Amino acid sequence: MTDGEPTVTVGDHEVHGVGLDAETRCTHYASERDVVAIRFGCCDTYYPCFRCHAAVADHDATPIPEAEFDDPGVLCGVCGTALTVRSYLECDHECPACGAAFNPGCVAHHDRYFDRG
Asked: What is the DSSP letter of 57?
């Protein structure tokens, strides 16, 4: 288990979770490439993963609806850039702003974060 903070500020955004480091890694996902946080549609709050949302939030998670895919929805934990959902989904696992590598395994959980209708 990571001994991190429950809230970190990355760029201009607060990220909530369990055991967070300065680049949004959490207790649940802490590899070198686990450096994104997702804005949950239910609360407009950034969390590194669905497990952090379940542990910290007082409500059920709701993914970002497709109608909001052109709005900021994913935060790069390395440079603090807020990416639109669409740009994140099209970025080939690399931050378009700073080049940081994102975990390609996150694709397995996209349905928890992004509602494609």
From this structure: -
**Assigned token pair, 64:** 């970002």
User: Which residues neighbour 111 within 8 Å (Cβ) at sequence distance 6 or greater?
Assistant: 63
| Tokens of residue 16, six digits | 């909530």
pTM of the model: 0.94
Segments in the chain forming alpha helices (H): 50-56, 85-89, 110-113
φ, ψ for residue 82, nearest 5 deg: -90, 115
Tokens matching residue 63? 């993914």
C-alpha to C-alpha distances, 29 to 35, 65, 71, nearest whole angstrom: 9, 24, 25
The mean pLDDT of the chain is 95
Helix or strand run (H / E) with residue 5: strand 5-10
The dihedral through the CA atoms of 12, 3, 51, 106 has a sign that is positive
Phi, psi of 19 (to 5 degrees): 65, 45
